Amino acid sequence: MDMFEAVQKRCSVRAYLPDPVPKDALERILEAGRLAPSAMNLQPWHFIVVMDQQKREAISAGRFAHFLSQTPVVIVGCGNRSASPKGCVVDTTIALENMVLVATGEGIGTCWIGSFDEEHVKVLLKIPEDFTVVAMLAVGYPREKPTLMERAIRFFRQRRDMEEIVSAEEFGKPFQPQFKEPGISGTSCGGSSGSNSIRTAPGRYMWPTASRQGSTGRPGSRSATLSRATWRVS
Ligand SMILES: Cc1cc2nc3c(=O)[nH]c(=O)nc-3n(C[C@H](O)[C@H](O)[C@H](O)COP(=O)(O)O)c2cc1C
Question: In testing the pocket of ligand 1, which one of 101, 112, 147 has its CB within 8 Å of the most ligand atoms?
C-alpha cells in the first residue's frame, strides 16, 4: 500500500476482533513511532503497550472509549515535559500518527483516543509525574461487520471543503484546487470486506493517487495537468 492510499484508507475503527495483533506487526507499528521526527531530535516520548484485560477495562472508562475493553492492544502515548516542554505534545502526536499509518498499511485498524482521565491513567500505568498522556491508540483487526453506531459515525466523517481550510499566500486568500469531482470518493474504511465504503457528500474532492504505471491522467480532462496521476473511483 502506498502512502497516499494509507492516508485515504485510514479511518477510526471502534469495533475489533479479539484476534491478537501479531508481534512482528506490532513491532513495525512501534518502530514507525520510534523513527518519527521530533524538535531538535529530542524524542520526548514514551509508549506503553497495554494488552492486559483489566487495565484495558480500567482505561475504557472515558465516555468515548468504552470499546477499549474489547480492543486487543492499546498504545498509550506519553510526552516527556522535562525533555521537551514545548515540543513533547506535537512530537508524540507525530509519532502516534506514524504508527496509525503503518498499522493501516498492515491491514490493522486504529482509533485515536482522547477520552480519558489523565490522572487515572497515570496512576494505573505508573506514569512518572513529568510525563503528559498525550493520547491513546486502539489497535487491532477491524470487525468485518461494524456496529450500527459505528456505521452511523463513519457516514458522517466528511471533511471540510478545500477552499475552507487552505489559503494561497495569505490567510483568507482563496486557494483554488484544480481537481474537483462531484459526489465520488475512493476511500474504504476499516477491514477488507469493502462493505464499509464511505461516501462523501456531493461536491467533495476526489484526490489523485500516484500511479505506479506513470499514467498522465485523462487527456483534456481536469486531471490532465497533473502528471503521474490516476483517479480512484468507487
Ligand atoms: C486527538 C484525537 C482524539 C480522539 N479521541 C477519540 C475518542 O476518545 N473516541 C473516539 O471514538 N474517537 C476519537 N477520535 C477519533 C475522531 O472522532 C475521528 O478521527 C474523526 O471523527 C474523523 O473520523 P475518521 O478518523 O474515521 O476519519 C479522536 C481523534 C483524534 C485526532
Answer: 112
Supply the pTM of this predicted model: 0.81
For ligand 1, the distance from its centroid to the CA atom of residue 138, given in whole angstroms, is 11
Render pLDDT for 212-221 as a digit per residue (tens, 0 to 9).
233 333 333 3
pLDDT grade, residue 164 (50/70/90)? very high
Alpha carbon nearest to ligand 1 atom 17, residue: 12
Q: Where are the domains of the chain?
A: 3-140, 146-234
Q: What is the tens place of the pLDDT at every residue in 44-66?
A: 999 999 999 999 999 999 999 99
Residue 227 reports pLDDT greater than 50: no
- CA–CA gap between residue 193 and residue 10 (Å, rounded): 14
Residue whose cell numbers read 468504552: 66
115 CB less than 6 Å from ligand 1? yes
Domain 3-140 superfamily per CATH: NADH Oxidase (3.40.109.10)
- Nearest-angstrom CA–CA distance, 12 and 193: 16
Q: Is 93 in the pocket of ligand 1 (CB under 6 A)?
A: no
DSSP codes joined into one string, 169-199: SSTTSBP--S---TT------SSSSSTT---
* Residue 159 in contact with ligand 1 by CB distance below 6 A: no
